Amino acid sequence: MYVILVYDMEADRTQKMLRLGRRYLVHVQNSVLEGEITKGDLAELRGKIEDLLIVGESVVIYELSSESYLDRTVYGEDPKTDDQFL
Amino acid sequence: MYVILVYDMEADRTQKMLRLGRRYLVHVQNSVLEGEITKGDLAELRGKIEDLLIVGESVVIYELSSESYLDRTVYGEDPKTDDQFL
């Protein structure tokens, strides 16, 4: 399945979510990760997100059974080149 | 169709994108908007995004023909209550 993950964390904690997310997905923009993921890995990632979040922070996971349902258009610099980000 | 829009702007220009985006979509998280949109409105929004962006900024639009292809899970505070954001 294909997943888009967006996160909104306390400023000093964004790196924690980014490190976690990048073990499963590609970092495509400031607080956005996306990519193919297995059901097992997604379940694992969900659990770790729940453990990580504190009050005031949020994560939204958009899940699609296949990337084929999705059209992705980038304006400006295509952020999918991972090396642009820490 | 259903759209998820994520944006990465210069810090002092995020409000411009937010104001533009909120005329068409719901602001759901720090730099994320989503919602149902007509083809005409989406074409209009695309044009305005292209006019607005400067070098170093990026917008990614994820488009689905229907929200039914999408499962959305929120962890932490559900940001879809719009009044939480400027």
Short description:
Two copies of one chain form a homodimer. Chain A contains two helices and five strands.
Question: What would you say this structure looks like, in words?
Answer:
Two copies of one chain form a homodimer. Chain A has 86 residues and is α+β, with helices and mostly antiparallel strands. Chain A has a four-stranded antiparallel beta sheet, with helices on one face. Chain A is globular and about 35 Å long. The termini of chain A are far apart. Chain A has helices at 14-21, 39-52, and strands spanning 2-8, 26-29, 32-36, 58-64, 70-76. Chain A has two helices and five strands; from the N terminus they run βαββαββ. In chain A, strand 2 and strand 3 form a beta hairpin. Chain A has a domain at 1-55: Alpha-Beta Plaits (2-Layer Sandwich), CATH 3.30.70. The model of chain A is unreliable at 82-86 (pLDDT under 50). The interface between A and B is medium-sized, with 35 and 35 residues. Strand 5 (70-76) of chain A pairs antiparallel with strand 4 of chain B, so a sheet runs across the interface.
Give the distance, in angstroms, between the N- and C-terminal Cα atoms of chain A.
26 Å
Query: What is the chain-wise order of helices and strands of chain A?
Result: EHEEHEE
**Tally of contiguous helical segments of chain A:** 2
- Biggest interface: chains and residue counts? A-B, 35 and 35 residues
Oligomer: homodimer
Using the coordinates shown, work out and report the CATH topology of the domain at 1-55 in chain A. Answer: Alpha-Beta Plaits
Kindly report the average pLDDT value of chain A. 90
What is the annotated CATH architecture of the domain at 1-55 in chain A?
2-Layer Sandwich
Radius of gyration of chain A: 13 Å
- Shape descriptor of chain A reads globular
